[in-house]
């Protein structure tokens, strides 16, 4: 399956290579560089590149290309999904996944990669298991290791690897037993010129942070499970129980994990919590254009909208912009033509507004299209779909855990066409 | 690049000097080489000394630096002798790093690598399974041909190891050995055959992977394991699931008859793909009796369904392609929702999924039509995603949604991403040809675009309009006149060429304009692009033939210019045209037909999806993505006309009887079966060997034990499921038994015995569960397994004692075969009698409910979480 892995940074240096079968010369990456050059932008590099003897499958994350070399037919998603899992694992281990961090921890990285694949086939990808095999580096542990001479490498097969719950360590102990669940919903929407919704969908996840002693068996039920149109589960969730009773029943992994992701489809009406009023106009003859946008709340169920940022890719013809915001700060990068306005909180009484003029290239004709406005925002304590957790019960352990649940709504890919 | 040389210097663990040669050829610029000569040799010496020191910490440091070198792709091979000495180090981290080093360099230093072999052989016998496994991993990764026999032996031994983890590694080692020495194929197939029988979910994925790589054509090895694989599937780790599902898809296509009804064809033309029309007629004649799906076929389709909910995109895609290729068309619809969900994922995942959806949407529009809006393009999507979405939108366009789509396309045309805007225009063209109702609207829209400011947009519109006009017999004089005017402003060669071709083709319809255009073109001929020049020549020739009075001289002028053109194609064409149209004494018979040749009715081009020809590849494969047959691609066979004997999959019952009769053999088999309790057994593996003599006697007790363990984890539904499943199985086996009869008398008798007992017990089960009593005699699997953590220790003991004599034979068959089953049954098997179904259904429900009530009472932990 996966022969080799190359890590390439944005300037085109291969800074790490790992081979699971015979060594593949790094010159194979030349084909990748060629494709990269053709694509001009990093995100346009095709994820699958055929070369005469190999196939290069890559993912691009954190400004690093993870390029896997394979030689024979394999489902491409298999490799891509695995590469993403590698990135996630690195992030889990080191907090961030960046070139300097990987270079600093090259030995751990190598050991982890060695455990993740055998002969190119995934061996252990659950981070709970990996962490038992190779302990993530912490300052304390490094100090202890240098003094006592102990190692970061576990010498016993993690019990999870053989059990039916490979995602959970055995012998977990906490003094404070707590379980937190975050219901986070993202609204993906396209709003057209006139302010009507072209498409809107809600993508939700339930992220959990569970720190419970022993082998707790949890059940989580919803007030309105029917809302969930399409769900995908962490492997710990018992599918049958969900099918029959619409209850999430599971033995949780230890620590942070994503319990569930769901989708509330476009068929259900989605409440759009903000409106954007815009007036952007270019005139044919003059070298000045007018620009004005106003963001205001709409259907927020009484909650405040925070963390609002507005970004927009202005047309190439725009040389500069002189704008005044009623609140927040704004920047315009004349090179990338990217306008961003950090609005902050929206006060319903006084909707924030950004107004001013754009100076256009002299002589250039006016752009065909007005720029699209991308919006980011957050609403605390609200799940816009109306999803509500009913109760959380724990079985199998005697103690009383502390339970908490949090709701949040965010903008996902939220675009306003102007 | 300079940063590069920096990092080399600071991290240099030595060895750079030796690696210079390689480095220069590699993609990283050789600039990294500056200033390396100075201290290198010394540094290597330094590493060697550290490796030879007595202190582990020094060794560890040295190894860490060496691994750092390997990671950067530098040559550290000259340290081989020093490193290999540490292979037997007590420190596990040093050992692991040495392993990393060995795997990397053993191939280059074969003789020295042999020094380490004995260490691995010793480690293969280590009581710690992790050490056994990693020894096997490294041993099999050392690509040294001399040790092939040793590897073979190690694999054989490991494949019978008590630890499923070691057996998993053995399955991986099979592939390694095979790639090192394909001669070993036969022996390896034996090992694969053995491992395929393994009941551990840990092993299943890896051994199927080995099967796919070593002997994908030996489909006969799968028969006996087919049902087991189907049933284990949900519990296999996600990567294994992908491999198994792909393999089973291929298997199903060879073993079952097509579930696609003839009627389906009206709706889509998928069948044409797999067989010609004549075939089908024959088939309809042949197939008089109504189609009934093989229960095994159904089993696969049913058991893969829950995996659509997997968080792993590869698994979802694998299930989707399975449904696409082997399920009845009416059922394939359920995959679309899950595939659309994947579109939220990373760019790379989106790319692959969209490609597959594009192929699917050509054949079955209906599947994705409800999700039309999910394919709307966002301005932030990368271009490759945008074009794929556009492709899908085109495929989904129909009379009902075209007006919405066209409005959406209008936005896209204005996009700042011009490549995308151009693709949109192509798309509009395709919609116009596919849907007759909107052809005129599209054409008008495109004509409007001709006044667009952006040249690329205009050029693309011209090209598309040309294609559209060619398809339409109706006159479009106005449009052509409009386009003729554009010639003054447009500079893109393709567009100019298209306009000229259009005018030439319709020169009789625009008699006034055509000669004028030719005049203008004659003037600018020398400065035109080759593409345009060719079309000017064509235009001239056509006009000469239709309107020679006005254009004779002009054409001759152009032909003269063309005669001395730099491009040989143009000179060639000029010569050809002159001979054909200008009458002279030498001109042959052809010139009489010149007009017919030039102004022949030309067939309109077909605007087709670029994904049209992809569907002969299995979906979700690399070959499909690239539209090239990738190395190692395994063709999906056509459905067989007549299903091969389904009883081959039955054999496992007989197999079991065989396995259980000789008590001596029990030991190995046990280890394979009880994967749940493995971890415990591992600790006292020394004891277990002595125990195993009496194993056959105490088997059921043991088995029960392992169940109790497992139930901690597996859900109550799953467990009750296994009970139910076994009921089904029994029924089925009973049915088939008549077929299998007469194969071996004594075994058959035994089997019969067992069977009757099992069915008894399953009856008892259902009744006992209905009572929801936990009495020890009525203890059944579903009971024992259901959340027995609640059940106190004494109770457990009691049940064990009580059960042992009773269920002895019974549980052998039941538990061991169907224990790991946890597949939810979505659809009832049609072959089942309705009464039994009802029973089973009731059984299932009652267990789960009883479990719940049982649970809620003792544990008062349940506390309401107040949702804020």
From TrEMBL, chain A:
It is a peripheral membrane protein. It comes from the Eukaryota. One of its GO terms (biological process) is synaptic vesicle endocytosis. It is found in: Golgi apparatus; Cytoplasmic vesicle membrane. Its main location: Golgi. Transmembrane segments: none annotated. GO terms for cellular component: axon cytoplasm; clathrin adaptor complex; cytoplasmic vesicle; cytoplasmic vesicle membrane; GABA-ergic synapse; glutamatergic synapse; Golgi apparatus; presynapse. Keywords: Cytoplasmic vesicle, Golgi apparatus, Membrane, Protein transport, Transport. Signal peptide: none annotated. CDD domains: AP-3_Mu3B_Cterm, AP3_Mu_N. InterPro entries: Adaptor_comp_med_subunit, AP2_Mu_C_sf, AP_mu_sigma_su, Clathrin_mu, Clathrin_mu_CS, Longin-like_dom_sf, MHD. Part of the AP-3 complex, an adaptor-related complex which is not clathrin-associated. The complex is associated with the Golgi region as well as more peripheral structures. It facilitates the budding of vesicles from the Golgi membrane and may be directly involved in trafficking to lysosomes. In concert with the BLOC-1 complex, AP-3 is required to target cargos into vesicles assembled at cell bodies for delivery into neurites and nerve terminals. This is AP-3 complex subunit mu-2. It comes from Macaca mulatta.
């Amino acid at each position: 399956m996966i022969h080799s892995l190359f890590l390439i940074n944005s300037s085109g240096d291969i800074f790490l290579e790992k081979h699971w079968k015979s060594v593949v010369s790094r010159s194979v990456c030349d084909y990748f560089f060629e494709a990269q050059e053709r694509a001009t932008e990093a995100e346009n590099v095709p994820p699958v590149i055929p070369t005469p003897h190999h196939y290069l499958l890559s993912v691009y994350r954190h400004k690093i290309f993870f390029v896997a070399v394979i030689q024979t037919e394999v489902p491409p998603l298999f490799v891509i999904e695995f590469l993403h899992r590698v990135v996630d694992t690195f992030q889990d281990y080191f907090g961030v996944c960046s070139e300097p961090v990987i270079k600093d921890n090259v030995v751990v990285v190598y050991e982890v990669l060695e455990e993740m694949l055998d002969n190119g086939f995934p061996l252990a990808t659950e981070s709970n298991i990996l962490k038992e095999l190779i302990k993530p580096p912490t300052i304390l542990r490094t100090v202890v290791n240098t003094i006592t001479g102990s190692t970061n490498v576990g010498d016993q097969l993690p019990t999870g690897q053989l059990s039916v719950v490979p995602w959970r360590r055995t012998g977990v102990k906490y003094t404070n037993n707590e379980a937190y669940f975050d219901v986070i919903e993202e609204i993906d929407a396209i709003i057209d010129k006139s302010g009507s919704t072209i498409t809107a969908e809600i993508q939700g996840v339930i992220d959990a942070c569970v720190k419970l002693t022993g082998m707790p068996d949890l059940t989580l039920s919803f007030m309105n499970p029917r809302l969930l149109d399409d769900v995908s589960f962490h492997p710990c969730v018992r599918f049958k129980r969900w099918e029959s009773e619409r209850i999430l029943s599971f033995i949780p992994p230890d620590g942070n994990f994503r319990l569930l992701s769901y989708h509330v489809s476009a068929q259900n009406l989605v409440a759009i919590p903000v409106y954007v009023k815009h007036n952007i106009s270019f005139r044919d003859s003059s070298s000045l254009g007018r620009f004005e946008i106003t963001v205001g709340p709409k259907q927020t169920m009484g909650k405040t909208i925070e963390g609002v940022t507005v970004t927009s890719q202005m047309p190439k013809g725009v040389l500069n912009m002189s704008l005044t915001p009623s609140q927040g700060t704004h920047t315009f990068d004349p090179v990338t033509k990217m306008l961003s306005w950090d609005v902050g909180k929206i006060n319903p009484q006084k909707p924030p507004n950004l107004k001013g003029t754009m100076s256009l290239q002299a002589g250039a004709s006016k752009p065909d299209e007005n720029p699209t406005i991308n919006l980011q925002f957050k609403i605390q304590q609200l799940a816009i779909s109306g999803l509500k957790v009913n109760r959380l019960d724990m079985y199998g352990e005697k103690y009383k855990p502390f339970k908490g649940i949090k709701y949040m709504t965010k903008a996902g890919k939220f675009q306003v066409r102007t | 690049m300079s940063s590069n040389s920096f990092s080399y210097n600071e991290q240099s663990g030595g060895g750079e000097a030796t690696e210079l040669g390689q480095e220069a050829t590699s993609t990283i610029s050789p600039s990294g080489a500056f200033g390396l000569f100075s201290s290198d040799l010394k540094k290597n010496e330094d590493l060697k000394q550290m490796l030879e020191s007595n202190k582990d910490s020094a060794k560890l440091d040295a190894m860490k630096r060496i691994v750092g070198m390997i990671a950067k792709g530098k040559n550290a091979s000259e340290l081989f002798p020093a490193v290999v000495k540490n292979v037997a180090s007590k420190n596990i981290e040093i050992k692991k790093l040495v392993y990393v080093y060995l795997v990397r360099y053993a191939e280059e230093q074969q003789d020295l690598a042999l020094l380490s072999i004995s260490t691995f052989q010793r480690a293969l016998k280590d009581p710690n399974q992790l050490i056994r496994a990693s020894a096997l991993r490294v041993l099999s990764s050392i690509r040294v041909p001399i040790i092939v026999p040793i590897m073979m032996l190690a694999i054989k031994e490991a494949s019978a190891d008590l630890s499923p983890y070691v057996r998993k590694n053995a399955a991986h080692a099979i592939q390694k050995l095979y790639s090192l020495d394909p001669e070993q194929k036969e022996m390896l197939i034996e090992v694969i055959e053995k491992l395929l029988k393994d009941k551990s979910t840990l092993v299943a994925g890896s051994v199927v992977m080995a099967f796919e790589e070593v002997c994908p054509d030996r489909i006969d090895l799968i028969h006996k394991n087919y049902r087991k694989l189907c049933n284990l599937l949900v519990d296999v780790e996600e990567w294994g699931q992908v491999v198994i599902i792909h393999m089973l898809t291929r298997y199903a296509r060879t073993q079952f008859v097509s579930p696609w009804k003839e009627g389906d064809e009206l709706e889509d033309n998928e069948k044409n793909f797999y067989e010609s029309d004549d075939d089908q007629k024959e088939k309809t004649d042949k197939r008089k009796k109504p189609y009934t799906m093989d229960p095994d076929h159904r089993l696969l389709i049913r058991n893969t369904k829950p995996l659509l909910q997997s968080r792993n995109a590869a698994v979802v895609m694998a299930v989707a392609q399975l449904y696409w290729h082997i399920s009845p068309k009416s059922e394939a619809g359920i995959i679309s929702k899950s595939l659309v969900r994947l579109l939220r994922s990373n760019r790379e995942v989106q790319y692959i999924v969209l490609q597959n959806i594009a192929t699917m949407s050509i054949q079955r529009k209906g599947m994705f039509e409800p999700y039309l809006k999910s394919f709307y393009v966002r301005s932030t999507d990368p271009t490759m995603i945008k074009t794929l979405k556009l492709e899908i939108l085109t495929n989904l366009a129909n009379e009902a949604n075209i007006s919405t789509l066209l409005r959406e396309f209008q936005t896209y045309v204005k996009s700042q991403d011009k490549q995308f805007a151009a693709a949109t225009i192509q798309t509009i063209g395709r919609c116009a040809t596919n849907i007759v109702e909107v052809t005129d609207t599209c054409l008008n829209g495109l004509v409007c675009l001709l006044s667009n400011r952006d040249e690329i947009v205009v050029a693309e519109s011209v090209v598309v309009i040309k294609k559209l006009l060619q398809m339409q017999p109706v006159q479009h004089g106005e449009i052509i006149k409009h386009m003729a005017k554009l010639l003054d402003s447009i500079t893109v060669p393709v567009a100019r060429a298209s306009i000229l071709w259009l005018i030439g083709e319709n020169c009789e319809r625009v008699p006034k304009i055509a000669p004028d255009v030719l005049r203008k073109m004659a003037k600018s001929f020398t400065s035109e692009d080759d593409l345009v020049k060719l079309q000017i020549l064509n235009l001239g020739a056509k006009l000469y033939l239709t309107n020679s009075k006005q254009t004779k001289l002009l054409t001759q002028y152009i032909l003269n210019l063309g005669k001395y053109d730099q491009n040989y194609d143009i000179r060639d064409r000029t010569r050809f045209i002159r001979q054909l149209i200008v009458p002279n004494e030498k001109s042959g018979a052809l010139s009489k037909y010149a007009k017919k040749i030039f102004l022949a009715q030309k067939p309109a081009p077909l605007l087709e999806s670029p994904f049209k020809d992809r569907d002969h590849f299995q979906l979700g494969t690399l070959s499909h993505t690239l539209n090239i047959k990738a190395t190692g691609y395994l063709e999906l066979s056509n459905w067989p006309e007549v299903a091969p004997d389904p009883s081959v999959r039955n054999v496992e019952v007989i197999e079991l009887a065989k396995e259980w009769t000789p008590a001596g053999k029990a030991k190995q088999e046990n280890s394979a079966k009880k994967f749940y309790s493995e971890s415990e057994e591992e600790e006292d593996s020394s004891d277990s060997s002595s125990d195993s003599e009496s194993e056959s006697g105490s088997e059921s007790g043991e088995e029960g034990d392992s169940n109790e363990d497992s139930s901690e984890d597996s859900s109550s539904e799953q467990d009750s499921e296994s009970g139910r499943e076994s009921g089904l199985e029994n029924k089925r086996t009973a049915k088939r038994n008549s077929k299998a009869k007469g194969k071996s008398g004594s075994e058959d008798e035994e089997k019969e015995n067992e069977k009757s007992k099992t069915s008894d017990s399953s009856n008892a089960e259902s009744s006992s569960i209905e009572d929801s009593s936990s009495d020890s005699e009525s203890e059944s699997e579903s009971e024992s397994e259901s959340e027995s953590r609640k059940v106190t220790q004494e109770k457990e003991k009691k049940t064990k004692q009580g059960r042992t004599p009773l269920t002895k034979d019974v549980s052998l068959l039941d538990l061991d075969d169907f224990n790991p089953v946890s597949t939810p049954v979505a659809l009832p098997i049609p072959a089942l009698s309705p009464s039994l179904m009802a029973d089973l259904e009731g059984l299932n429900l009652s267990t789960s409910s009883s479990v719940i009530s049982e649970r809620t009472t003792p544990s008062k932990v349940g506390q309401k979480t107040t949702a804020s």
